[in-house]
TrEMBL record:
Keywords: Signal
Any GO molecular function: odorant binding
InterPro entries found in the cross-reference section: PBP/GOBP (IPR006170), PBP_GOBP_sf (IPR036728)
Gene designation per UniProt: Dper\GL26834
Span of the signal peptide: 1-28
Annotated transmembrane regions: none
Entry protein name: GL26834
Cross-referenced Gene3D superfamilies: Pheromone/general odorant binding protein domain
Length: 164
């Protein structure tokens, strides 16, 4: 009886070989899991959601498309967003070093370019602004005109689209 089963086993494997291989490969394949978001990306999404709660659908879509016209609701949104991230302080403006570190540090941003751009926009906007929300908006709009702004747009698009 033992010899018969030993002879039948190779025959069975020969007959079911390809099917057995396919089944074992299919069973061994792990089910795909959605990619985990980075903590910074989650913080950006939370701040975006909290600060856009008072916006209409059309206004929120404009924010998501990064169309930031100088309007009161846009100023409030920008101030809320950066304040929630703790990267804007009403007494001092943008925390340039905090922004660099929060968004990946020197490996993602050129620090020699980012710090002067953010700090320069901060100082320039402070001189011409009327109130904290206006100052925050003007500093942000200024930064958007620099290479840091280009990076910010790409990064936020990746976060919104689930790629970061």
């Amino acid at each position: 009886m033992g010899q018969r089963s030993l002879i039948c086993l190779p025959l069975l494997l020969l007959l079911l070989g390809p099917l057995g291989v396919l089944q074992s490969r299919a069973m061994a394949r792990p089910t795909p899991t959605p990619p985990l978001r980075a903590p910074q990306s989650l913080a950006l999404l939370r701040a975006r959601d909290q600060c856009s709660a008072h916006l209409s659908h059309a206004q929120r879509m404009r924010m998501d498309r990064m169309q930031y016209e100088n309007l009161p609701h846009v100023q409030r949104y920008i101030h809320c967003f950066w304040s929630r991230l703790q990267l804007w302080h009403d007494g001092t403006g943008f925390d340039a070093l905090g922004i660099v570190h929060s968004f990946g540090g020197p490996r993602r941003l050129n620090v020699e370019q980012a710090l002067p751009a953010i700090n320069g926009c901060n100082a320039k906007a402070r001189r011409v602004s009327h109130g904290v929300s206006d100052w925050c908006y003007r500093a942000f709009a200024c930064v958007l005109k620099t290479p840091v702004g280009d990076w910010y747009r790409r990064h936020m698009a990746d976060v919104i689209n689930g790629n970061a």
